[in-house]
Amino acid sequence: ISVRCDLVLLAVLLSSTAALYANANGKSYVVVNSLLRWPDAQTYCRKFHTDLALVENAEDNAALPVIHVTKFAWIGLYRMPWSWSDKSIVTFTNFDVGQPDNQGGEHCVVDNPDHFWHDASCSISSTV
Ligand SMILES: [Ca+2]
């Protein structure tokens, strides 16, 4: 089972818990409590795990780690066009109402506490 590095947290208040694992469809997700820009998060995940999290269907989305519920976190989705971090084709998205809105060039994606997605600037490393 590959371990996909999930959810580089963008919240100001960070848990001391280092990681929490969940399994769905043969995937394992790990939470990284670090404030990182999307490109740095991708680099980190590829170095220490596999890649940023691919959330490719509703089952994957429902299995995201519980620790994530109060925080925003990067997933491995970016554009243009929309693509996953490993270049795989996007067949599932879970954007929030009104998203993606591309306000000011938002080419990376965060998962919100309710597991709905927002496009966001890839260079942010704080709360959105
Ligand atoms: Ca947005």
Unreliable stretches (pLDDT < 50, length at least 5) are: 6-22
Order of strands side by side in the largest beta sheet? 5-4-6-7
Shape: globular
Name the CATH superfamily assignment. Mannose-Binding Protein A, subunit A
Gap between N and C termini, in Å?
32 Å
Number of domains: 1
- The first-level CATH class name: Alpha Beta
Mean pLDDT, all residues: 76
Outline the biggest β-sheet: 4 strands, antiparallel
Indicate the percent of residues in helices: 10-25%
The DSSP helix count reads: 2
Strand content: 25-35%
Q: Which small-molecule ligands are present, each listed once?
A: calcium ion
Write down the secondary-structure element order. EEEHHEEEE
Give the helix/strand class.
alpha+beta
**Extended strand count:** 7
CATH topology: Mannose-Binding Protein A, Chain A
Radius of gyration: 13 Å
